[in-house]
Amino acid sequence: MRYLLVGAGGFLGANARYLVSLGLSRWWGHSFPLGTMLINVTGSFVLAFFVAYGLRRLGVPDAYRLLFAVGFLGSYTTFSTLTQETMERAAHGQIIQAAVYAGGSLLLGLLAAVIGNVLGSAV
What domain range includes position 104? Predict the structure, then answer.
């Protein structure tokens, strides 16, 4: 049953990631991987909020952690795509853009996680 929960969450998270990334690339273009950055930042916020509020305060059952935190958010966010897109920019001489993307993703992700944790603990 645990594998089914993780798998179902992963299916939904992967599709959500694809739709967000596709929509933002159509709106923003392909010059900067805004979709992946937004996905990782929002995923950081939502996971931190879920842990602080759902797991710590509400004590949600482990099944929800597997479905949502491990499955959905595990496939929604992607560090491997971030590193690949950073390397591609650096390989094309876009060193500043690569640094802004990697550094911005890390800083904004951490900030989003802190905010999610604070809000999840305060609710």
Answer: 2-122
Tell me the three-class secondary structure of 42-108, residue by residue.
Answer: HHHHHHHHHHHHHHHHHCCCHHHHHHHHHHHHHHHCCHHHHHHHHHHHHHCCCHHHHHHHHHHHHHH
State the total domains in the chain.
Answer: 1
The distance of Cα 64 from the centroid of its chain, to the nearest Å, equals 18
Q: What percent of the chain has pLDDT over 70?
A: 100
92, 78, 77: which is closest to 30 by C-alpha? 92
Residue 33 DSSP code: -
Stated pTM of the model? 0.81
Question: Is the Cα dihedral 23, 7, 108, 103 positive or negative?
Answer: negative
pLDDT of 77 > 80? The answer is yes
CA distance 113 to 117: 6
Secondary structure (3-state) at 32: coil
Pairwise CA distance, residues 45 & 61, whole Å: 20
